[in-house]
Amino acid sequence: MANLAIMPRQGQSVESCIITAWHKKVGDKVAEGDILYSYETDKSAFDEPSLFSGTLLKVFAEEGDVVPCLDPVCIIGDEGEDYSALLPKKEGEKAEAPAEAEKEAKEEVKSAPVATGKVVAGERVKISPRAKRLALESGADLSKVDPSGPHGRFIERDVNAALDNGYRTDIASVEAFLRGETVEKKEETPVEAAPAAVAAPNFGEYEEIPMSGVRRAIARSMHASLSEMAQLTLNASFDATRMMSYRASLKAGAEAMGLPKISLNDMVFFAVSRVLPEHPEINATLKDDKIRQYKHANVGLAVDTERGLLVPTIFGADTMSLAELAKANKAAAAKAKEETLTPDEMAGGTFTVTNLGSLGVESFTPVINPPQVAILGVCAMTNRLREDGTVYPAMGLSLTFDHRAIDGAPAARFLKDLCTALENFGLLLAK
Hints:
Layout: E1 3-6, E2 16-22, E3 29-30, E4 35-40, E5 45-49, E6 54-59, E7 66-68, E8 72-77, H1 98-110, H2 129-138, H3 156-164, H4 171-179, H5 213-228, E9 231-239, H6 241-257, H7 264-275, E10 284-287, E11 290-293, E12 299-301, E13 303-305, E14 308-310, E15 313-314, H8 322-337, E16 351-355, E17 374-385, E18 391-402, H9 408-423, H10 425-430
Parallel strand pairs: 12-16, 16-17
Antiparallel strand pairs: 1-8, 2-4, 2-7, 3-6, 4-5, 6-8, 9-18, 10-11, 12-15, 13-14, 17-18
Helix pairs in contact: 2-3, 2-4, 7-8, 7-9
């Protein structure tokens, strides 16, 4: 029985997804649980397993296509089966006849052009973005392998096949092949050749990398943030002596007490979660000229990943102990780096904390994550002098706020109260 596979909805806010790679092609056998294709939302990447067993009879989207959630992606059934009833009907058109549909499915495989190394001049080679990037990085000689993607497109497994068989060449030859150029070797002659001129170094070489779905989402969000908000940043610092002393005691006795590893960022996060509810104008969002002030602190944790900046939300952070918060932060960061976060786990934040202190940044201007109205940047620790000449560790904080929703004085009061809470971290725990 033929079955229709649809694009799943990964979160309530997701309307469409981009297919990044097909792992099966028309005519391939498919077992339940086999990965059919990979796709990504604005902020997450997923592999879609098959819910059915049979043969891949029809695909409705290629790599790079944007597919609305719940729309059909492919058909899986028995080889030669009539699946015309599952074909989406376009207005004014009839569904394909079963014989024509079967013929088309077979021709999709047969008509794929074979790469022989002789490319028609001026005709660019069809290749997926991921395969192109891998080929240019590795020097894979694609002229030695056949494309296995839909409609004669090279995909990632074709590049890996070339590498596995030792087919490598220089990057210039790879680029020429992808442009459809034929590189011909001239025959050597016994005539003495003039001394070869030394080629001038090419300092204009570059690698062109298409923006991923995550990168495009970040670009849209950050551009909207800066173009639509009136953002202003306040900078302050606090005496971290007591906080550092408390952390030292944690490192010494955490294992004996059964506590998780607690970082400075966890401690700042904890203080933010306690101070936010006392400043509802900061713990808020602004959308459609309406300000929502939240009772609980749902704090976003900015995480640097290979795919870009991801911000999972720690819901109800103000209700967690320091140990619970540290565990939640580590679990969320791990899911972000493993690319297993769902869109719903990155939505609903009321405030965000981003930390560049570990990279030595002493002050910066964090960009607000809309529709939130504020974000805190955690900076590096520096040594400063007290009036009596003694040295103390000072940690910088950078608060960016949306001046449309918050005035400077309330924002400054929040930052002042946060610094006070961090300077007296032991008392904050007892509060």
